[in-house]
């Protein structure tokens, strides 16, 4: 199990914390998606369970390591939300029952709880009780998003580890190795669009999203010229996730146009669309560009926060606002 290069430093820090006696029986990994954090947690669990670790790494050959590799280690437990449901109290209670028995391989036990923010209140309270009375040789590894609404009482019982997106140059180099057929310009643009999250970016490049984005924004441009909302509406995906991504693309178009307007020197997200962004920026006032940008952000916020909404209606409303309140007011 190879670790992604950007996770190496935090892995080393984890291991040395434990070696120097600063380890903790409950670790909370706060992370964003697309950074490969599950591989970090599994690798660390393997190291915790290994009978004969070699410095920072697990040996890979002892019985424990072989059981981990086969996915059948009796002392490694994985708890997650099942079929999109919250993690219920029964899942935590079952786990606790298992912990009352001795570790079957006579060493450490590790319990990995993915999406810990999905614990129901009852489950979180049950977990809290367990964390308050730690068992020897039992380690809890919790994973939750950076700004998750995880119970403060649970957080206070854990040692927190922050897994952040790696630097631009590290991801850039890794992606070059992963996608050698792509141009460096494409990789650079994809990196900005994906907020430097390496695995998201790799998927983005491999699924040809870069050219999908270009086509979509060309249609956005046509919508801007014609004010024909149906022209762009038909280009939107059906899934929430796709729509949010497409709205991201429009918001970056606006933010680049604002940068051009205000001659801000910071890097553009879409340098390849310069020929569209520059005239767009020149034709619209700063107020209009800001307004357009805000319309997109507000639409995204509603789509994220409200569950039962008619997505097409939301989009039609946003595009109408753009056409009437942003584009039309600048026409001469
Ligand atoms: Zn081993």
Automatic annotation (TrEMBL):
The keyword Transferase applies. This is DNA polymerase III subunit delta'. GO terms for cellular component: DNA polymerase III complex. GO terms for biological process: DNA-templated DNA replication. Residues 208-322 form the DNA polymerase III delta subunit C-terminal domain. Its EC number is 2.7.7.7. It catalyses: DNA(n) + a 2'-deoxyribonucleoside 5'-triphosphate = DNA(n+1) + diphosphate. The lineage of its organism: Bacteria, Pseudomonadati, Pseudomonadota, Gammaproteobacteria, Pasteurellales. GO terms for molecular function: 3'-5' exonuclease activity; DNA binding; DNA-directed DNA polymerase activity. Keywords: DNA replication, DNA-directed DNA polymerase, Nucleotidyltransferase, Transferase.
């Amino acid at each position: 199990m190879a670790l992604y290069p950007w996770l190496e430093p935090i892995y080393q820090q984890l291991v040395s914390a434990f070696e120097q006696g600063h380890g903790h029986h409950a670790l909370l990994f706060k992370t964003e998606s697309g950074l490969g954090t599950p591989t970090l947690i599994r690798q660390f669990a393997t190291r915790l369970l290994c009978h004969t670790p070699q410095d920072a790494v697990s040996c890979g050959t002892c019985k424990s390591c072989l059981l981990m590799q086969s996915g059948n280690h009796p002392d490694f437990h994985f708890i997650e939300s099942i079929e999109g449901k919250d993690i219920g109290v029964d899942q935590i209670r079952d786990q606790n029952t298992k912990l009352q028995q001795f570790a079957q391989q006579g060493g450490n036990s590790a319990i990995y709880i993915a999406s810990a923010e999905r614990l129901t209140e009852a489950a979180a309270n049950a977990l809290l009780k367990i964390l308050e009375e730690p068992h020897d040789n039992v380690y809890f590894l919790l994973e939750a998003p950076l700004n998750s609404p995880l119970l403060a009482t649970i957080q206070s019982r854990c040692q927190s580890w922050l897994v952040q997106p790696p630097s631009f140059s590290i991801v850039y180099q890794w992606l070059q190795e992963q996608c050698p057929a792509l141009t460096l310009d494409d990789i650079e643009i994809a990196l900005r669009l994906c907020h430097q999250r390496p695995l998201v970016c790799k998927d983005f490049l491999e699924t040809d999203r870069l050219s999908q984005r270009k086509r979509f924004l060309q249609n956005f441009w046509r919508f801007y010229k014609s004010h024909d909302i149906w022209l762009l509406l038909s280009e939107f995906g059906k899934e929430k996730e796709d729509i949010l991504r497409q709205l991201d693309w429009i918001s970056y178009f606006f933010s680049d146009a604002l940068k051009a307007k205000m001659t801000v020197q910071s890097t553009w997200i879409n340098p390849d669309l310069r020929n569209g962004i520059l005239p767009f920026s020149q034709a619209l006032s700063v107020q209009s560009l800001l307004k357009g940008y805000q319309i997109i952000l507000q639409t995204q916020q509603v789509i994220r926060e409200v569950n039962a909404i008619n997505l097409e209606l939301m989009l039609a409303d946003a595009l109408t606002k753009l056409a009437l309140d942003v584009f039309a007011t600048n026409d001469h």
